[in-house]
Specification:
- The protein has about 190 residues and is mostly beta strands.
- It has one helix at about 1-5, and strands at about 10-15, 20, 25, 30-35, 40-45, 50-55, 60, 65, 75-80, 80-85, 90, 105-110, 120-125, 130-140, 145-150, 155-160, 160, 165, 170-175, 175-180, 185, 190.
- Strands 2, 3, 5, 6, 8, 9, 11, 12, 14, 16, 19, 21 and 22 form a 13-stranded mixed sheet that branches. A seven-stranded parallel sheet has the order 1-4-7-10-13-15-20.
- The longest helix is centred in the first third of the chain and has 6 residues, at about 1-5.
- The radius of gyration is 15 Å and the shape is globular.
- About 40% of the residues are buried.
- The model has no long low-confidence stretch (mean pLDDT about 90).
Amino acid sequence: QGALDFYGEGAYIEIPEGIWNESLTITNNGVILSGTFGGGILNASGFQSGIIVTADDVEIIDLEIIGDTSTSAGVIITAPSTNVKVNGCTIHGMSLSNPGNDSPLSYGILAYGSDANFVPSELVFANNEIYDIAGAGISLGAWTENSMIIENTIYNISEVEYLGSPLSVGVQAQFADNVMVEGNNFDGLII
């Protein structure tokens, strides 16, 4: 977090090799956060989320994000973020029910807005491996637009109880406009 705050807008941050126990917040535009060369791991265990993005033109690339029973989401994108990419990441272990509402779901990736005029848009979630999550692999929670969910592998999404019935989902969307879901692999089924 210190590097993100210090370098600010347009920063390219490469996560060094090792395990980094923290939660990150990206509020500066044009940030690239990469685990490509060093093999860095963001361990968000003990935190409510791994990475929260409220910015434009952000890329999260080739990073492993780990959570636990205290973690509700690996990556959260909030409105009015635009042009956010999560690509080549491994996200797993989240199992805390959403602390922001009464949803029993945890998420690998969660994006949401507050209404039709305040949405995250131009989102790309590609080539990620998402597993061992309680409830939902990828969720366009409410009010998103222009999103692409492509070539992800999503598995071992454990069931949670929702309105008296068991529920687990690979990808879900609510009040989402213009969403493309293509070439994803759910427990061996390519959709």
